[in-house]
Amino acid sequence: MGDISDTLAPLSVASERAKQKSKEELVAEIFRLHKLIESTQYQTKTAYWEYVIETQDITFSEYAYKLVGLEPYSIKLTNEIFDELIHPDDRDMFVAMRNKLASEGIPDGFEYRLLVNGKTKHIKLTSVLEKNENGVGIRVMGATQDITDLKYNEGRLRKINLFAQDLMTLHSEQDLIWYVVKQVVSELDLEDCVIYLLDKNTNELVQSATYGLKSGGDRVINNKLRIKVGEGITGHVAMTKTPLIIDDITKDDRYIADIPGMGSEICVPIIHEGQLFGVIDSEHSEINYFTENDQNLLNTIATLLAAKLGQWDNLEKIKTSEAQYREAQRIAHFGSWDWDLKNNIIKLSNETYLIMGLIPQEKAIDFKQFRKCLHPDDVEALTTTVEQMTHIHNDFDANFRIVRPDGEIRHIQSTGEAFFDDNNSAFRMSGSMLDITKIKIAEDALMRHKENLEMLVEERTASMKSARDEAEQANKAKSEFLSQMSHELRTPLNAILGFGQLLKLDSDLLNEIQQDNVEEILSAGSHLLELINDILDLTKIETRKLKISISKIHIDEIIPQCLTLIAAPANERHLNITTNIKNTGHVIMSDGTRFRQVMLNLLSNAVKYNRDYGDITLDYKIMDENHLRIYVTDTGMGLSENEIANLYTPFERFNKTINVEGTGIGLVITKTLVELMGGTMGVESIVGKGCSFWVEFLRSDPASMT
Questions:
Q1: Measured on CA atoms in the order 406, 409, 415, 417, is the torsion positive or negative?
Q2: For position 236, what pLDDT does the model report?
Q3: I need a surface site. Which of 291, 346, 414, 496 has the fewest CB within 10 A?
C-alpha cells in the first residue's frame, strides 16, 4: 500500500489532461475519477480527508463514515466525533500530533486506535501538508487506513511462531491438544473450536479437546461426540483429507447439529505423511464468517500438530514393536534353526533346544539326529516337504510333532526358506520353530466345547418351546375359564339382585334390621356384578375378542351423561363437581361406548377415593393441533411414586386404609381401552392433595361430524 501522494497522483495527471478536453469530456473524466476513488476506498479500507488548519474544518470521503460505524453522510463528521472514538490510551498522543500539524504535518506511519461499537480498530495516517509562502501549514490532505486485519494477522503469526517453539516442551498427546485449544486457538477470535482425534479401532473421530461453547471446565467436554469417518462435515473432511469452509451450515445436509445457533463452519484435517490423526473444527454464529486466511491459519496449526503427533506415533510404534517381539519370544517359545545342506549340519538356537526338551549346546546336530526327535507318524511327510523345498523352490511351512526324551509330545509349526547357488542347487535352509502345543490343546477343547454347546442349545431351545406352549395353553385355559365362570355367575346373581330389589320395594313391610340386610345384599351383589363385568372385559382384552370401533365423538355429548351417572354417589359424599367441558365443540377419534366407560371409571374413582366435601374438576387442554387431553382431578389422598409405578398392575389396590370397594383391575382396563382407541393415559399426583388422571386422543374437525 503506497502513501497518500501515490494515491492522489492520478488527480494531478488528470488536471494536466483536463486543459486539453471539452467541458463534457471534463465532466465525464471527473465522474470516472470519482468512481475510481470511491471504489479504491472500499478495496483498501482507506478514507480520504482534507483538513483546513486555520478554521479546523475537516471534510471526509464516504468510507470515513463506514470506518466509524455510520451511514454515509448521515451526519457531518467532525474532529469532535473522531476524538470521542479515539482509544483512551492513544488520545494524548493523537492530540499532541494534531497540535504540531501546522508546522510538522503527520509523522510517517503514524498509528493509533479507535473504539467503534466496542471493537478496537487499528488506524494508520498518511498525509501531504500544504504550506503558504511563509512556510506555515494551511491545509492537510490525507488518508486514514484501517489496518486492523493487518495487525490481527501479525498477531496470529506471532502466536503460530510461539506455538512452533513451545512444541518442543510438550511431552504428551493430551498436553499438546489442550495447549492448542487453550493457548493458540483461544487467541484467534474463534467462538468455538474442537479437536477430534481418530480412534483407529472404531474408525471414529472423537472430540478430545475443546475451546468455547463445548468446554465444561478444565479438560472437560460437554456432550462428547463420536463421529464415523465419512459422516457429517467433520467426517467428510477426514475421509477426503481436504479442508472445507461451509458458509451456511443450515443449507448443508451433512451438518450434525452439536451447538445450537451456529451459522458457518471451517474444518481442516490433521495429516502427517498421508496419515490421518484427526481434524480441527470450528463453528461461528455468523454466516459467511470464515475466510481463506482462517483456513490457511488452521492448516498451519494442524500441520504443526500433526508433525508432533506423527513423531510420537512413530516412537510408540517402535517401542511397541520391540516390546511385542521380546514378549513373543518369551511367551511363545520361539526358536530358530539354520541348516548347512552341503555339510548336513543343523544349528539350533537355545530356545529351539528347549522346545525339543534338549539341553542347549554349542555342538550342531545333523538331520539324522533331528529325525530321531520326530513323531514316527510325521517323519515321511516332513521329509517330503524338505525335498520339495530344495527342488522346486517352495517355501518351507510345516506342522509336525516331536517326542521329547521324557515321552511328552509337542506340536510344532516351522517356516523357512532355501538359498540357491548359481547352479540352482540348494546349499542352505534357515527358518523358525514355534511350539503350538497349547494352541492345539485349546483348539481341541474349543471343538469339544462347541459340540457340547450346540447340543445344550438344542436341548434348551426344545425346553423353552415346550414351556412357551404350556404357558400359552394355560393362559388360554385361564381366559376361557374366567369367561365361562363370569357368564355362569351372572344368572344366579341377577336373580339375587332381582329379589333384593323386590324386597326393597316392600321395605315398609320390613323392620329396620331387615332393611339393612337388603341394602347389604344389593351392595354386595352390585360389587360382585362390577367385578364380573371387569373380569369379562379383561378376558376379552387378553383373548383379543374386544372389538373397538373408532369414529368421531363429540365430548360435549358424552361428558354430561357420565356426570349424571355419578351424581348420586357424589351427592352422598357432598362432593362439589366443576366441569369446564361445556359447549366446547371438540371432537375426538374414539369408540363412543368405550370412551364413556373410560370416563365413568375415572369419575367413579374420583368419587370413591375423594374426601368428604371434596372437589372433582373436569378440564381439557389442546396439546397441539392434533391432540386433546381431558383431565379428571380429585382432592383425595393422592398417590406416591411407588404406587404410581404399580398403578396398572392387575388386582393391585391402593389407599387400603379407607373402606372403598373395588376390583383392582379398573384402571388396567381403562388404560388398555384408551390405548386400543389410539390414545394415551397418565396421572399426576401430590400425596395428601389428590390426583389428576388424564386421557389424550386425536382431535377431529367438528364440522365434519356426520
A1: positive
A2: 93
A3: 291
DSSP string, 316-382: HHHHHHHHHHHHHHHHHTEEEEEEETTTTEEEE-HHHHHHTT----SS-B-HHHHHHTB-GGGHHHH
Residues whose CB falls within 8 Å of the CB of residue 128, separated by 6 or more in sequence, listed in order = 4, 5, 8, 105, 140, 141, 142
Q: How far apart are CA 379 and CA 15, in angstroms?
A: 110
Q: Which of 540, 547, 535 lies closest to 666, judged by CA? A: 535
Distance (Å) of CA 140 to CA 47, 52, 231, 457, 587: 14, 7, 60, 99, 82
Q: How far apart are CA 579 and CA 658, in angstroms?
A: 26
C-alpha grid cell, residue 7: 494515491
Q: What is the 3-state secondary structure (H, E, C) of 591-642?
A: CHHHHHHHHHHHHHHHHHCCCCCCEEEEEEEEEECCEEEEEEEECCCCCCHH
Best CA proximity match to 409, nearest among 449, 446, 377:
377
CB 92 within 8 A of CB 169: no
* Residue 20 φ then ψ, to 5°: -105, 5
What H or E segment, with its residue span, contains residue 94? helix 91-99
Q: State phi, psi for 576 to the nearest 5 degrees.
A: -95, 120
Rounded Cα distance, 281 and 221, in Å = 14
CB 551 within 8 A of CB 592: yes
Asked whether 593 and 546 are in contact (CB, 8 A), the reply is: no
Longest CA span, the chain: 141
Which of the 8 DSSP states describes residue 221? B
Predicted pLDDT of residue 706 = 40
Rounded Cα distance, 678 and 705, in Å:
19
Residues 629/588, Cβ–Cβ less than 8 Å:
no
Q: Which three cell numbers stand for residue 261?
A: 445457533
CA distances from 690 to 365, 475, 685, 693 (A): 96, 37, 6, 10
d(CA 416, CA 390) in angstroms, rounded, equals 11
Query: Of 41, 49, 46, 37, which Cα lies nearest the Cα of 106?
Result: 49
Which of 258, 260, 232 minimizes the C-alpha distance to 246?
A: 232
Q: Whose CA is closest to 185, among 217, 204, 206, 213?
A: 213
- Give the cell for residue 530: 362390577
Q: Report the distance separating Cα 443 and Cα 533, nearest Å.
A: 64
The answer to whether 127 and 144 are in contact (CB under 8 A) is: no
The letter for the amino acid at 547 is: K
Angle at Cα 192 formed by Cα 188 and Cα 195, nearest 5°?
A: 90
As a 3-state breakdown, the chain gives helix, strand, coil percent values, each rounded to 5, of: 50, 25, 25
* 31, 188, 598 from 601: Cα distances, Å: 88, 66, 5
Mean pLDDT by 10 residues, the chain (706 residues): 45 50 55 61 79 81 81 79 84 83 77 83 83 82 80 67 69 83 71 88 91 81 89 92 91 85 90 90 88 83 83 76 58 77 85 83 79 88 82 79 90 86 86 84 82 80 76 62 59 67 72 74 65 64 72 90 87 92 90 86 90 94 92 92 82 56 72 89 91 93 48
Work out whether strand 204-212 and strand 334-340 pair parallel, antiparallel, or are unpaired: unpaired
pTM: 0.36
CA-to-CA distance for 667 and 675, rounded, in angstroms?
Answer: 12
What is the spatial distance between Cα 628 and Cα 702, in angstroms, rounded to a whole number? 13
Tell me which residue of 174, 277, 290 sits closest to 221, measured CA to CA: 174
Cα 539 from Cα 535, distance rounded (Å): 6
